[in-house]
Amino acid sequence: MALLPIDLAMRAPRRASARLLWLWRSMASRLLLLTLVFVAVPVLLYDQFQRADEASQQLLLKSAQRQGELIARALEPELLGVDRTALPSLSIALARYGDDRTRLKLLVRPRVAATGAAATTPSGAKAGPEPFFYVAAAPSLSTADIDAERRLLLEQGVLDRLGSSCAGNSTLAMRVPHVEGGEEVLSSITPIKTSFGCWALVTSHATEAYISSSIGRPYWSTPAVQAAAAIYLAMAALVLAVLAGIWRNLNRFGDLARRIVGGEDVPDQENGDASFAARNTVPELAGVAEDFDRLVSTLRDSAQSLRRAAEDNAHAFKTPIAVIRQSVEPLRRAMPAENARSQRALTMIEKSLDKLDGLVSFARRMDEAAADLLAPARRRVDLSSLVERMAGGYTGLLAERRLHMRSRIEAGLVVRASEETLETIVENLVENAVSFSPPDGTVSVRLARAGSPGASMAELVVDDEGPGVDPANLDRIFERYFSHREPGRGMPEDEAAAHQAGAAHFGIGLWIVRRNIEAFGGRVRAENRPTGGLRMTVILPLSA
């Protein structure tokens, strides 16, 4: 008892190790792990690339800011002595520093605006309450585009902040649509303070370095990131689709294998769908599917060969046995009854023939059982009709043994199984009950739907009035080569000897019964009846 905790402690790590090994080898676990990797990798990479892009943005904006400062310093001498009449000429000066890629806009906040006097644009139109006005642009822009850009700067509060101090060169990082199509990036705004007022030089760029960057928009919306995301998603979808396709194909193989084992592939053979090759959708698995088909074909051929060999061998052996048995009868009639030694020799020959005949039947049933293991055929079988027909076929045997049959069979119970195998099951159960029943005993056969009227199981019960089984052996009577009862037990000695002479038990009948029933998805149990005898109960699933 002291070793039990140690044994349990040793088993726990082994179970945990086996569970981890199963998880690692499982395709579902690997598919889940791969999905997590596909989700985690872009998150990590996105964070790193976003940081690198932010650093690149800072470099670009600092470069633009420096460029704006240099242009402002170059313009400052021309702005120091400017007055209202000289404002139109500033476009010429500004054009010397701007081009299609580097665009400049010059705004001014006259001192008169700061005192609250009505301000007007250089053209003389009333400008409204906004403190800054566009003076010039290089290249030139329409009034509508200039007003739209000024409103954007006002909405962002850039001009308000600049107007309060007229100091400090700041970066903008704002995107605005361009009149010729596309967009440009407002990169910096540089103030210049003169006696006329506060000037603001706005620098913008339309170069590829600025447009393709994430300046002024979320990093994920950049073309490079979107293209990379599309390629990555396509790759992930392709990999997952490959694994899912293999998984679906394996499920198709498993489904077909279950149908073949269950005998449900017979109707589909006409449509060519009852083969692994026909169900395969992955070209790389074509060889595996063909090997599976060859294996199934080989198993079916082997099963058929076993059945044919079992039948041929049984016929080959039973013919000489029958000849010997027929030849013994004339010898017995010719032999004087008082010659006890000769009569005993003939009796031994007859018993040996009975045993040999049983051995031949035993060998045939073993071969047929092996064939059923290789390729069990199944179809819809009317179990009610089969049991009723077989129960009525034992009239002669029952009369010979002075037994009675009582049957109660519910009609319309259909199962999916092999009719031949079901006959073997019923035959073994009834003959087992007959062989152990005393004279004038009753063998009872009942077939009904198990449980409630809508239940999906059929229950077959075979009762006898024999000696029953030692309770210690009830769990072993379905084992191979285990003979659970002595035929004729409880009968008078002369009747028991005669009964045993005609019954050979090799301990495989009930083993075959259980193996076949379990192959059809059913179960069987044995129990001693309270009033004496043995009860065999078989549960089989009904066919839909």
Could you name the key traits of this structure?
five-stranded mixed sheet; alpha+beta; single chain; rod-shaped; about 550 residues; 12 strands; five-stranded antiparallel sheet; 16 helices
Any chance you could write out the topology, listing elements then pairs?
Layout: H1 3-25, H2 27-80, H3 90-95, E1 102-110, H4 111-114, E2 133-138, H5 143-155, H6 158-165, E3 170-177, E4 183-193, E5 197-205, H7 208-211, H8 223-261, H9 276-279, H10 286-334, H11 340-374, E6 379-382, H12 383-392, H13 395-401, E7 404-409, E8 414-417, H14 419-435, E9 442-449, E10 457-463, H15 493-501, H16 509-519, E11 523-528, E12 534-541
Give a verbal description of the structure.
The protein has helices at residues 3-25, 27-80, 90-95, 111-114, 143-155, 158-165, 208-211, 223-261, 276-279, 286-334, 340-374, 383-392, 395-401, 419-435, 493-501, 509-519; strands at residues 102-110, 133-138, 170-177, 183-193, 197-205, 379-382, 404-409, 414-417, 442-449, 457-463, 523-528, 534-541. Helix 10 runs antiparallel to helix 11 (340-374). With 544 residues, it is α+β, with helices and mostly antiparallel strands. The protein starts with a helix and ends with a strand. The chain contains 16 helices and 12 strands.
